[in-house]
């Protein structure tokens, strides 16, 4: 059961990442990876919410389902470290050093900020 | 083509994402970490995924006419789904919340540094290997 939930969430998360990345990247005429940044921030905020729900509201039965489907599956797959890493190295190798550093700083700071906001919001909603 | 996406590309991304996510989930079960401890599985998965994506993208760039669905399936799907940013963030927050600030910082910074190095190594090694094999073909 858990395996099926992870597969399902993982498939949905990857498609969501692909679609959002394309949509965002098309609206920015720049080499800066806004699309990957967007999915990583959104997914981190969402996982903050999911984690808060698991902590304060989840009963053991539904917790396992939500963890597998939404946590490990959807949020895990919707966000990516490999594309973030590759984009950063590609920017650096292309002499866009400032963009490479900005990508790391923005992704990490905004990712942690979004996760924190998700945790606080979720605790306020369900706590 | 404005917002239309080919269904076969989306299917390749979905299938790859499902498989990559399951592999990441399995790695997490195989290498569990205590609450607030260093999330070895996420760290290892992210570094390996970065190494593989660096290699894949370098190989694709040097291949004439690669299979159309290879990048959506392997790059976007499998490796995108295998690596994760959200779990990395929540792992670090969890360590900090449980009073392991040192682990949180080492993990947060170490993941980024190790992953960037892994991408560069994957690119460099693949580049060198392809150049060697091309030179062999010529001589």
Automatic annotation (TrEMBL), chain A:
Ion transport as UniProt keyword: yes
Activity regulation (UniProt): Na(+) is not transported, but it plays an essential structural role and its presence is essential for fluoride channel function.
InterPro entries: FluC
Binding-site list for Na(+): 76, 79
Keywords: Cell membrane, Ion channel, Ion transport, Membrane, Metal-binding, Sodium, Transmembrane, Transmembrane helix, Transport
Catalytic activity reported: fluoride(in) = fluoride(out)
Compartment(s) where it occurs, according to its Swiss-Prot or TrEMBL record: Cell membrane
Transmembrane segment boundaries: 37-56, 68-86, 98-126
Protein's membrane topology: Multi-pass membrane protein
HAMAP family the record matches: FluC (MF_00454)
Described purpose of this protein according to its UniProt entry: Fluoride-specific ion channel. Important for reducing fluoride concentration in the cell, thus reducing its toxicity.
NCBIfam families to which the protein is assigned, alphabetical: crcB
Entry similarity comment: Belongs to the fluoride channel Fluc/FEX (TC 1.A.43) family.
Protein name: Fluoride-specific ion channel FluC
Organism: Prauserella oleivorans
Gene name of the encoded protein: crcB
From TrEMBL, chain B:
Residue stretches spanning the membrane: 7-27, 39-61, 73-90, 102-130
Catalytic activity: fluoride(in) = fluoride(out)
UniProt-listed HAMAP family: FluC
Pfam families for the chain: CRCB
Protein keywords: Cell membrane, Ion channel, Ion transport, Membrane, Metal-binding, Sodium, Transmembrane, Transmembrane helix, Transport
Cellular compartments annotated: Cell membrane
Function: Fluoride-specific ion channel. Important for reducing fluoride concentration in the cell, thus reducing its toxicity.
Keyword Nucleus: no
Membrane topology note: Multi-pass membrane protein
Binding annotation for Na(+): 80, 83
Main location: membrane
Signal peptide: none
Regulation: Na(+) is not transported, but it plays an essential structural role and its presence is essential for fluoride channel function.
Annotated protein name in UniProt: Fluoride-specific ion channel FluC
Taxonomic superkingdom: Bacteria
InterPro entries: FluC
Upper taxonomic lineage: Bacteria, Bacillati, Actinomycetota, Actinomycetes, Pseudonocardiales
Family as reported in the entry's similarity comment: Belongs to the fluoride channel Fluc/FEX (TC 1.A.43) family.
